[in-house]
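Hi support team,

I've been running sequence recovery on a batch of backbones for a student project. Most finish fine, but this one hangs at about 90% for roughly twenty minutes before it completes. I'm not sure whether the input is malformed or the queue is just slow. I've pasted the C-alpha cells below so you can try to reproduce it. Let me know if you need the job ID as well.

Thanks,
M.K.
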C-alpha cells in the first residue's frame, strides 16, 4: 500500500530496451501512440501502478511512444495499439493480456511476480489469504505425474490466473470452493492426463452458478470466450428460487464446456 513517485520509464532505443529485459526479473512494456484512445486510458493506470513500492521493487514498467520512436516499434513488428509485452527472467510470456483497470492490473503484476505454489495446512487459511478463486491441490506423492503436471501448469499456463494451494493427502484431487460449493476433479493416473487437468482448471475458473455481482462479472468478462447466462426473474416463491438455483445449475453443469458461468438476480427480492 505504500506509494512514492512515479517510476515508469520511457524507452527510446532497442539497446536500452534489451538491457532492461536482460537485467530485471519482471518487465512489462507498452507500445503506444498519441492518437490511440485505449492507450490514453491505460497509460495512467501503468503510471499509477509504478508508484506502489511493492510493484517498483519487482517490476520495470516501460513505455515506448511509437509516434516518437517509430523505428523502435517497427523493430518489434508492432501492428496495433496498445501492444503489451510481459517478460519473466528475460523470457517473454506469450498469450497473456493484463487487465486495464488499476485494481486488477496491480493484482496481475503481484500474481506473476509471486510464487504460484503455496504449501498449506488449512484450506480456510489459504482461501482467506489468496481468495476462493484459487484451487486447492491434494496429492498422494510429490513425484507423481499429477503433481508434476500441476507444477508445470502453475508456472506456465495459469501463471497469471491462480495461486495453487497444495497439501499431501491420500488421493490426487483439485478442489474449487466457491461459497462452500465444492467442485472436485478426482485424478486417476490410468484414465487422466495433464490435458484433462488443464481442461478442468480452464473450465472451472469461476463459480458455475452465483448471484450476479459487478466484481464477478468483471472477472468473467476478462476472458470473453464463453457463454454467460444471466437470468432475471420476479418471484417471492421459494419453489421458483430453488428451481432457478438447482435445476438450471444441473443443465449448466452438463454443458460446462460451453457454459462459462450462470448468474441469477431475483428482481423482487434483490431490487425491491
Amino acid at each position: 500500500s505504500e506509494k512514492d513517485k512515479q517510476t515508469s520509464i520511457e524507452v527510446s532505443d532497442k539497446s536500452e530496451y534489451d538491457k532492461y529485459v536482460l537485467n530485471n526479473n519482471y518487465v512489462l512494456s507498452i507500445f503506444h501512440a498519441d492518437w490511440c484512445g485505449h492507450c490514453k486510458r491505460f497509460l495512467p493506470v501503468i503510471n499509477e501502478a509504478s508508484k506502489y513500492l511493492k510493484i517498483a521493487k519487482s517490476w520495470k514498467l516501460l513505455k515506448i511512444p511509437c509516434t516518437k520512436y517509430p523505428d523502435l516499434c517497427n523493430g518489434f513488428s508492432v501492428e496495433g495499439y496498445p501492444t503489451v509485452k510481459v517478460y519473466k527472467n528475460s523470457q517473454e510470456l506469450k498469450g497473456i493480456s493484463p487487465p486495464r483497470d488499476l485494481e486488477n492490473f496491480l493484482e496481475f503484476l503481484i500474481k506473476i511476480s509471486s510464487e504460484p505454489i503455496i504449501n498449506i495446512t488449512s484450506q480456510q487459511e489459504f482461501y482467506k489469504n489468496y481468495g476462493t478463486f484459487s484451487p486447492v491441490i491434494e496429492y498422494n506423492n510429490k513425484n507423481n505425474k499429477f503433481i508434476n503436471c500441476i507444477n508445470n501448469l502453475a508456472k506456465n499456463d495459469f501463471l497469471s490466473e491462480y495461486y495453487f494451494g497444495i497439501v499431501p493427502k491420500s488421493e490426487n484431487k483439485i478442489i474449487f470452493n466457491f461459497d462452500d460449493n465444492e467442485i472436485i476433479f478426482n485424478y486417476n493416473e490410468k484414465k487422466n492426463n495433464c490435458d484433462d487437468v488443464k481442461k478442468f482448471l480452464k473450465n472451472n475458473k469461476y463459480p458455475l452458478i452465483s448471484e450476479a455481482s459487478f466484481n464477478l462479472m468483471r472477472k468473467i468478462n476478462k476472458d470473453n470466450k464463453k457463454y454467460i447466462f444471466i437470468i432475471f426473474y420476479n418471484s417471492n416463491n421459494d419453489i421458483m428460487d430453488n428451481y432457478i438455483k438447482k435445476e438450471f445449475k444441473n443443465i449448466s453443469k452438463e454443458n460446462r464446456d460451453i457454459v462459462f458461468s450462470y448468474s441469477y438476480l431475483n428482481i423482487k427480492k434483490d431490487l425491491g
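--
Follow-up from support: It reproduced on our side and the slowdown came from queue contention, not your input. Residues 94 and 150 are 19 Å apart (CA to CA). No action needed from you.
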